């Protein structure tokens, strides 16, 4: 099936969002210094704090954010700026208090980001009542996290989706039966575990940036704004692709995506 010109342009735009430089590169450009400097300043045991905080943040977001996003009509513009302002506020607190605030700040900012992702999904015509769409919102947190040493064949958009496909399908089936709320579902636990390992990359980069002394509260707000902007862009690209897959089929869009 030939893809119409407008849809092909949308696919090109989606790829430009999904395959863009990772968060670390954006933070480095913003700070004008390598993000590795921040990693060197973090205290012993910081990775364990980030890991546990990341899993908790995703669990909180999955069990709360999407449930209240059915009030607007499909296709209405998302409230990206509003969500950025909210995340900037939580980032200011995190920047001021540092790593000890992460277990409190990250679930708040992640829940706001989940709401923003769901808002973007709805703006692309995706029905938030559909379990597949709910899981696709969660899936966004696994996207766009390649580091400079990663193999592009393993971190590209469709490669990540392929790696998550079984867990995504199982989680969607669970949500269809039980609803989103269900912390003890093996299907959701497995999906969150897989996604948190990739989301944790970006969280680590955010924490490292906020550890640089010149950042402070104001810098924490800026870093968090960059953080949510990154996932808003991933969400926009992801749901454009999903919209086109509904129209043309998965295989046709995947082949076209690789060619554009």
> What is the count of DSSP helices, taking H or I runs of 4+ residues?
12
Dominant shape:
globular
The rounded Rg comes to: 18 Å
Instruction: Provide the succession of SSEs.
Output: HHHHHHHHHHHH
The N- and C-terminal alpha carbons lie at a distance of 16 Å
Helix content: over 70%
Number of strands: 0
Structural class: mainly alpha
Strand composition percent = under 5%
Uncertain runs with pLDDT below 50, 5 residues or more?
none
Main beta-sheet annotation:
none
Q: Could you report the average pLDDT, rounded to the nearest whole number?
A: 82
Count of individual domains: 1
Q: What this model shows, in words?
A:
The two termini are 16 Å apart. The mean pLDDT is 82. 73% of the residues lie in helices and 0% in strands. It is built from twelve helices and no strands. The protein has one domain (5-259).
Keywords summarizing the entry:
about 260 residues; mainly alpha
Summarize the structure.
By secondary structure, this protein is mostly helical.
Secondary structure elements and pairings:
Elements: H1 5-18, H2 23-31, H3 36-41, H4 46-62, H5 80-97, H6 102-123, H7 131-139, H8 152-155, H9 157-178, H10 186-211, H11 216-248, H12 250-259
Helix pairs in contact: 1-11, 2-10, 4-6, 4-10, 5-6, 5-11, 6-7, 6-11, 7-9, 9-10, 10-11, 11-12
């Amino acid at each position: 099936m030939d893809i119409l010109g407008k849809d092909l342009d949308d696919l090109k735009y989606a790829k430009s969002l999904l395959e863009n430089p990772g968060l670390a590169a954006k933070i480095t450009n913003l700070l004008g210094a390598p993000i590795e400097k921040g990693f060197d300043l973090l205290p012993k045991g910081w990775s364990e704090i980030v890991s546990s905080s990341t899993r908790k943040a995703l669990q909180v977001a999955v069990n709360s954010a999407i449930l209240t996003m059915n009030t607007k009509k499909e296709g209405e513009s998302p409230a990206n700026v509003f969500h950025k302002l909210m995340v900037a506020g939580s980032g200011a607190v995190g920047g001021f208090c540092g790593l000890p605030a992460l277990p409190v700040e990250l679930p708040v900012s992640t829940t706001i980001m989940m709401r923003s992702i769901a808002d973007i999904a709805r703006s692309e015509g995706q029905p938030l009542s559909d379990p597949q769409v709910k899981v696709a919102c969660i899936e966004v947190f696994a996207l766009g996290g390649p580091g400079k040493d990663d193999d592009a064949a393993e971190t590209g958009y469709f490669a990540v989706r392929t790696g998550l496909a079984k867990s995504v399908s199982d989680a969607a089936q669970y949500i269809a039966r039980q609803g989103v709320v269900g912390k003890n579902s093996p299907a959701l636990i497995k999906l969150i575990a897989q996604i948190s390992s990739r989301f944790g990359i970006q969280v680590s980069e955010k924490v490292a940036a906020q550890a640089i002394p010149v950042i402070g509260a104001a810098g924490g707000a800026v870093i968090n704004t960059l953080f949510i902007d990154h996932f808003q862009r991933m969400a926009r690209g992801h749901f454009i692709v999903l919209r086109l897959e509904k129209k043309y089929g998965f295989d046709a869009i995947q082949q076209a995506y690789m060619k554009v």
